Amino acid sequence: MNTHARHDSPASADLRAVAEDVDLLLELDARNHDDGRSPEPVRGTGTVLGMPYDLRRPTAERLKATWWDPASEKVLVPRAVGAGWAVNFGALAVKLGVIEPDAEDVPFAATPDAAFRAAAVGPAVLAAAVLAHYAVRGRSLPETLPNHWNLVGEVDGTVSRPVAAVIDIVTATTGAGLALCGGLSTSHGGRRAGLLASGTAAAAAAAMTTVGRVAAQGRAPWFGPSFLTGLGAAVGTSLLGLARAGRRAEQCRDLG
């Protein structure tokens, strides 16, 4: 019987030691989560009087993860920037039965380019409507226009007509530009969805503010709820359309 002693090279021994260290770190991390200990806080985030805040620079990926996470059961989640909560439209869509939590392997990864480009049309239309409003009706508007409403719908802040026009037009066109970047980008789907959702939110907010400056000049308790509902509907519909397009693309790919 011929036997040979096994001798590992120094490189093999080093690689095996590194692998063992990695396994140990993964095991310790799993134990930390299993025993209920919270992960280390992220710099720039936290809570004040129970309200979450995030002071980090916003990114398209974080916005997407905040607004669309169907795998999570939480409908209200901490905002991606600022203080307070945002709606997780992915979880809301699951609860409404519109999609399934595992509808996509990775959200928006399979969404085709045509769907992203189509989603950029909505913000562009809203921006065009804001521009047309001030171009056609600008001179006939009052010299001062509402700029802020309190919780009961009363105007508690005004600006001059030119300032209102600049605010609304710049916000709307910026939103359309962000959406266009998302529609034409060659980046991964998550970032494109974040850009489109951000652009849609900005353009929709500008369009509804433009309407409110004319229609809600007195006491208008309906304006606040209408604004939030319209904003949520615009962002949620945009993301839902992208997600469903991605789901259809995945199904076609799986079926061959």
UniProtKB/TrEMBL annotation:
The keyword NADP does not apply. InterPro entries: DUF1648 (IPR012867). Residues 30-49 are annotated as: Disordered. Keywords: Membrane, Transmembrane, Transmembrane helix. The chain crosses the membrane at residues 114-136, 163-181, 193-216, 222-243. Residues 30-40 have a biased composition (Basic and acidic residues). Residues 127-166 form the DUF1648 domain. The keyword Transmembrane helix applies. This is DUF1648 domain-containing protein. It comes from Micrococcus lylae.
